[in-house]
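Shipment paperwork, digital attachment
Item: protein structure file
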Amino acid sequence: MIERIETGIAPSSAPINDAVRAGKHVWLVAIAEDPQTGAIVDGGIDAQTRRCLDNLELALKAAGGTLRNLVMVQIFLVDSADAPGMNAVYRDYITEQPFPVRATVVVKELLAKGLRIEITAMAVLD
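Attachment content:
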């Protein structure tokens, strides 16, 4: 059975969730949006990566986990030049082995205007 996780992050107008659970597995998505207003945060890749990871952390906490429960992360960037900045912030959040497996993909654009990064992830809860 699939369960919606109420993350406390501003809901999308599209038919999507920030997090769902099936058993011990949790699937998540995070963008650089203010969790109260849903507005895309100002700033460069550092600010947007930090907000994405903060939102991912909020969603995991709502599911009963932490970033340590991540097993897979997919990062979508609109500019490959943003990779060093994204990686620097990512290292501040993902600090202990075993690290989740990760793929980083450069895409032509993301749906929300001004969005430079989007993250999808999978976690396994204890």
